[in-house]
Amino acid sequence: MKAKQLPAETTWFCVRRDAAAKHYGWIDNASLVDLPTHVDAQRGDVLEVCICDNFRPVSPDRFPQVFYERARGLVGMEISFRGETARFSPTRMLSANLRFKRARDKFLGKSEPKADDFASEGSLRAFSARQFLLPVNDKTEKVELYRGATLIAATPAPGENRAADLADGIGQWMICNLSREGALPYKYWPSRGEESPADNAIRRFLATLSLTRLAKLRRSNELRDAARLNLRFNLKRYFQDIGGGRGAIVESTGAKLGAAAVAALAILETPASAEFQTELAMLAAGVNSLWDKELGFRTFFFPPERDGDNWNFYSGEALLFWAEAKRRKTNLAPSLERCAEVFSRCRERHYQARNPAFVPWHTQACVSLFKQTGRREFADFVFEINDWLLPMQQWDGLEPDLRGRFYNPQRPEYGPPHAASTGAYLEGLADALALARTLRSSARITTYERAVERGLRSLRQLQFRDLNDMFYISKKQRVMGALRTEAYNNAIRIDSAAHALAAAIKLLRPENF
């Protein structure tokens, strides 16, 4: 549309029927009460609305400082060039999962101006927006949104059980999305209504493990059968005999220690383990074969050039499998003395290069080893590494929908904020909290309980909880109960659900010492 001077306040609207956009645009001088009539919304429609104001110019060289990822869904963008203008409301960008740079490049795609041309002939403006949904019924009542969703309060309401609500939602999502063959979607794009071709076997087996645990917690035959079918599917797809009595989980990128360990854990915990004893024994032999006296564990069966990658993750997954195999009195793992040796080596390596990815898996392994041996060094290390992790949890000075996540902006090499990360750290904290209660560490009990409560707030905020969260999603059964990657990125990934579910289960059924 042609560029023009906007009033101080203007309104973006999108009329949706069954989540699909019927028509949309901008309108001036229309109140929320009168808006449905002005834009020809019919009974049963839902109006997506952004009341936009505070338009301010942005110089092209400041694009990254204003239109950064965390601003998506809160800040709108107007871009003009050679007489044409495009304006992107915050909710429009969220519903399309559209990044600022992608929106800019798409608008300029036909012109492909040089930087100097855009600086002289183009302009950028940022703007703010109050966001609402207006269901058009006999009595239209507005629903206020923050970044396209309703806000989860800082503290639970009386009677609210966030761990249970989180677990039940994820469990229902898994049941609804389980294929006839037993597959769960690895990654799904809600805005497109499509599955991604990406894949990761470890994360798929994490989902199997979490679903198995939920079935036990809820004593549900439906969940138990779903977990068994999923396990069978994953093993059929990824398990291979790699020789020497060893089994591995093989992908196009190679065979990872972590994948073998998590798959073995999933078999170890299923009530149908007798069906998969051959695979379990071979996976255990594979994990055992990657033990290394100096490193604790090597991390790849193949390719050899990747050995050492992801050590922080995979060493903890392998040590947890060993500890749980010993706790269940199987002959699949080496002695507790060997477990203690590997623990000591891993502890030394962690001190040499601390990384938060190390914390949740090694916490769970150490808790299991402490339960079996009573050795205080395992408990002390759990407390030490979780105390070190906690400053990464963000709260004060952050937008209300982001509070409770784990991210250290001073150490970007630790990874971006992600639902899967928050879920994983919460898994470890749940065990650390149970341990603190057992050992009556009162100060840590208070600190860990607060961290857990805040983490649950974050995960529930990221969960698709109701129709308001899904106002733009037509295939609602594909997303209900799943977790967005972030508040400003609605992509769904299986490990986000798996870690969050595992954490919720640990909180609902704490470790018994």
Structure description:
By secondary structure, the protein is of the alpha+beta class. It is built from 17 helices and 17 strands. The strands form four sheets. Strands 1, 2, 3, 4, 5, 6 and 7 form a seven-stranded antiparallel sheet that branches. Strands 9-8-17-16 form a four-stranded antiparallel sheet. Strand 1 and strand 2 form a beta hairpin. Helix 13 (358-373) packs parallel to helix 15 (419-438). The longest helix has 21 residues, at 442-462. The protein is elongated. The model has no long low-confidence stretch (mean pLDDT 96).
**Overall number of strands:** 17
Based on CA atoms alone, the radius of gyration comes out at: 25 Å
Biggest pleated-sheet summary: 7 strands, antiparallel
Shape by Cα distribution: elongated
| Spatial separation of the terminal alpha carbons | 67 Å
Low-confidence segments, ≥5 residues, pLDDT <50? none
Q: What fraction of residues sit in β-strands?
A: 15-25%
Helix-strand category: alpha+beta
* Average pLDDT metric: 96
Please give the share of residues in helix.
40-55%
* Annotation field: number of helices: 17
Primary descriptors:
513 residues; alpha+beta; seven-stranded antiparallel sheet; four-stranded antiparallel sheet; 17 helices; elongated
Topology:
Layout: E1 10-17, E2 20-27, H1 35-38, E3 46-58, H2 63-66, E4 76-81, E5 84-88, H3 90-95, H4 100-108, H5 115-121, E6 122-135, E7 143-145, H6 162-177, E8 187-189, E9 194-195, H7 201-218, H8 221-238, E10 239-243, E11 246-251, E12 254-256, H9 257-269, H10 277-289, E13 291-292, E14 296-297, E15 300-302, H11 311-327, H12 336-352, H13 358-373, H14 376-389, H15 419-438, H16 442-462, E16 484-486, E17 489-493, H17 494-508
Antiparallel strand pairs: 1-2, 1-3, 3-6, 4-5, 4-6, 6-7, 8-9, 8-17, 10-11, 11-12, 12-15, 13-14, 16-17
